[in-house]
Amino acid sequence: MDIIYKGAEATLYKDEYLGYTTVEKERKPKKHRIEELDKTIREKRTKNEVKMIKKAREAVNTPYIFSIDPENSKITMEYIEGQTLKERIKKGKEDPGEIGKKIGELIKNLHGLNIVHNDLTTSNIIRKDNELYFIDFGLTENTKKTEDKAMDLLVFKKMLKSTHWKQFKEIWENLKKQYDKKNVLNRLRKIEKRARYTEKNEKNQKDT
User: Fold this and answer.
1) Which of 12, 18, 120, 142 has the highest CB neighbour count under 10 A?
2) Considering 31, 47, 78, which residue would you say is the last residue of a domain?
3) Residue 47 half-sphere exposure, CB side, CA atoms within 13 Å?
4) Segments forming the whole domain that contains residue 25
């Protein structure tokens, strides 16, 4: 198997399964945690990720799950052959306005199922032919809270600003128009206002 990604929580391997190209995701043991507790946490997160991938499929394209091995914290899933939106936007292969609308629609669909991804980035959205696929549901949770949905959008907004600053305004404005959940967008503005207020106070305290 070839390692295609190695992160703090998991390692991804590219492999073959029943004639299909697959990704095997393995959550590695954490030495700083008590062994039994660590095993329980990894099993729980593995099961939850599979559950969220399958549930999210009602709203967006997600990888097909071939097998799950909770005891060893492993998931074997479809390898999505395509390019990340991060690559495509940077190379000018996506129209900022159109991709903003599409992402807004898909996030709205996810939130409509009370699914919050918690790691929304253009690296975790892949274009395969004419379809967009959402990947990496390791932090995803089921929640009805408006605050959680607003934070999901905030994570994506901050990522856009830092990674795609040239296209940021067009993507974000079109995303908001298509998302169109006023209660969530209003909460997002309140969170940002609260953050600016906190930053201002901290700066004033340092200056005094």
Assistant:
1) 120
2) 78
3) 8
4) 2-78
How do residues 152-205 score in pLDDT, each as one tens digit? 999 999 999 999 999 999 999 999 999 999 999 999 999 999 877 665 555 555
Residues 74, 133: one domain?
A: no
Domain final position from 54, 78, 102: 78
Could you count the other beta carbons within 10 Å of the beta carbon of residue 95? 15
| Encoded tokens for 141 | 């949770």
CA 157 to centroid of chain Cα atoms: 12
What is the Cα 192 distance to its own chain's centre?
A: 20
Residues annotated as catalytic (active site), given as ranges:
119
Same domain for 201 and 175: yes
